[in-house]
Amino acid sequence: MKIYIYSTILMLFIAIGNTKAQNNLSFYNLGDYVIQTQDVSPIFIPKYKVSFGTPLNLGLDLNSTVKLNDLLVESGSNLKFDFDNLNAVAEDINVLSTNIVANIFTLGIKTKKGSITLFANAKSNLAWEFSKEFTGVAANGFDASFALSREKIGFTSHSEIGIGITRTFFNDKLSVGVRLKSLSGIMHAELEDNAQLSVDINPANFLWTVSAQNAIINTSGVSDTENLSFFGSNSGFGMDLGFDYKLNNKFSFELSINDLGSINWEENVTNYRLQDVNGVVYNGFDFQNSGNVQEEIEDALNDILGAEETTEAFDSKISSRTFFSAKYKMSEKNVLRATYFSENNPYVDTKPSFGLGYNRELNKATYGVIAGTGGNNGGFRFGANLAVQLSFLQLYAAIEDVSSIGGKVEESNAANFRFGLNFLFGYKGKSKEPEMEEKELLEDEK
Questions:
Q1: φ, ψ (nearest 5 deg) of residue 95
Q2: In this predicted structure, what is the pLDDT of residue 158?
Q3: What is the DSSP string of 383-420?
Q4: pLDDT of 256-313, one tens digit each?
Q5: H-run or E-run covering 369
């Protein structure tokens, strides 16, 4: 059994290092062994009467087209922000996205034809799509003309509590899973879609010609972080749907659609708005006769752009995810699975991912590997997963790329891992003598 413990610890350290995101494909392949996989597929047909998820369950997904050392560079013995360097390496369109999932409580009960689960999670998501024009403004300030029209950003932190039901039909050939979730928004900030701001600076007389359309930032909980509530007035509803069909004893197909829903933000709301203007000229002001330079600039820009703050409630969609997989059982314990993943993120454009995985499935343990490609970072990736039971205790871990073991964190632009600890009671899998199970595990260790 020691090999499983050592492997889990090793995988966790690897995950904290330099890895590339593969959007939970490796975690998805743990399936019915781990109750938390309902975050990516609502279908759950457990082998145990009772599955209890502890708060020691965490998932992180980070994707970026730029690396940390593109912005933070060495200056002697110190580090400094270098926006010129960031602008030099930035692509035409750049993406930064993060997803953090903390499973606070999970309880699964096996039924005759499936399972019933209760759960509570906390989730945080940042999606930012910025252009090279933006990095140019960060590097050069307002010293040159610029046009910002392709910027998108959204940040959401929310909690969810809900119930999940999995039911089998037609002699277990068809499985249907549904999860209903009550959402509670904690914090949110977003730039309105199609927001535009441009400044054209005349080098001869330094007159600014300003245009702005739909330049609105909606926030909730940002201006008063001391009064954030885990279950506040920002309410919403979400749903997960899943279908699994066994074509025969060898082939099965699964479709899952997760996080369909939205949140209504009405607590601690602030909207920042610039009025729509087209080609308004800013003439500057007289420095010599000005009493207060800062007030003069603020008044002049306010006259042009008409900045205002309001407290209007608004809605935001949560990012939905789709998995489709085809599973082939080579034998009773050896399984191949091809998986397609796509995300519908309201703030950034994402590319689909593909994976081909193998898992060795024992009665009380599974471990496997997966090769994947696609996503915003592209390239080829090699991931691994593991779930093992030690008495009533279950340990699991899944990472999406092990090719960069020992890599420097500052040279990384992505990371994706899941790990956790559960309690399992009342094994109801296929009957097998304990001695046979132990013998299989010993053979796999060798």
A1: -130, 135
A2: 94
A3: EEEEEEEETTEEEEEEES--TTTT--GGG--EEEEEEE
A4: 999 999 999 999 899 988 888 888 887 655 555 555 555 665 666 666 667 788 899 9
A5: strand 365-374
Residue 19: CB partners within 8 Å, gap ≥ 6? 399, 400, 401, 402, 404, 412, 414, 415, 416, 417
Ranges of residues in the chain with a pLDDT under 50 are 1-22, 431-438, 440-441, 445-446
**What are the distances in angstroms from CA 431 to CA 113, 171, 360, 434?**
18, 20, 18, 9
- The whole domain housing 432 covers 2-445
Element (H, E) at 4: helix 2-16
What phi and psi values does residue 41 have, to the nearest 5 degrees? -150, 120
Whole-angstrom distance, CA of residue 383 vs CA of residue 371? 6
How far apart, in Å, do the first and last CA atoms of the chain sit? 11
- What one-character-per-residue DSSP string does 113-157 give? TEEEEEEEEEEEEEEEEEEHHHHHHHHHTTSS-EEE-S-EEEEEE
What distance in Å separates the CA atoms of residue 369 and residue 366, rounded to the nearest whole number?
11
Distances (CA, A) of 292 to 3, 289, 307, 308: 71, 9, 20, 22
Q: How many domains does the chain have?
A: 1
Contacts of 190 (CB under 8 A, 6+ apart): 153, 154, 155, 217, 218, 219, 316, 347
Q: Which amino acid appears at position 120 of this protein?
A: A
Looking at residue 261, which CATH number applies to its domain?
Answer: 2.40.160.40
Prediction pTM value: 0.81
